[in-house]
Amino acid sequence: MAAFAPGCRELWLEVGFGGGEHALAQIAAHPDAALIACEVFANGICSLLSRLVPEGAEATGALPGNLRLWPDDARILLRLLPDACLDRLFLLFPDPWPKARHAKRRFVHPALLPLIARVMKPGAEWRIATDDPTSQDWVAAVMADQTPFAPAAPSTIRPEGWPATRYEAKALQAGRRPQYWSFRRLADTP
Prior knowledge:
Elements (H helix, E strand, L loop, with lengths): L9 E6 L5 H9 L3 E6 L3 H11 L14 E4 L3 H7 L5 E7 L20 H7 E11 L2 H12 L21 H8 L5 E6 L6
Parallel strand pairs: 1-2, 1-4, 2-3, 4-5
Antiparallel strand pairs: 5-6
């Protein structure tokens, strides 16, 4: 937490922040939460930064004290984080990787769950949202067959406290029905 402003009491991680609207809404609404926002695509990073740094001030502009960017694969960051450090994890409208041969690229994956569970505190929340039917089925199947997180049924209504994203807006406009999950990290049993 030393990398963040004093007063940050929780550490959150957003994987694939897209244009950054969700990350920015979260840090504004929760100044006591430190957020690491991960995005590998330059367009997304530029979109978020353009909302924070005035034109012409790119060399001197600073990020809010409760926001840090990780411009690389989130799996690398997960391996670097200490045990039980995250209070909340966001995975909102990720690329669906709909083909079976792409399944290994999905962030919700049986092989990645132990790593995700390791960095999350007992009771920490993992929020997942997707509008893609293949992804919805995949999340339901993978999360039904795991033990680090409490089972959770999806909702078709965005829960209160989940800022909207442009991907969600596009899905709704196209007639796709997003599903939203909130999984809680269980305490490890001896």
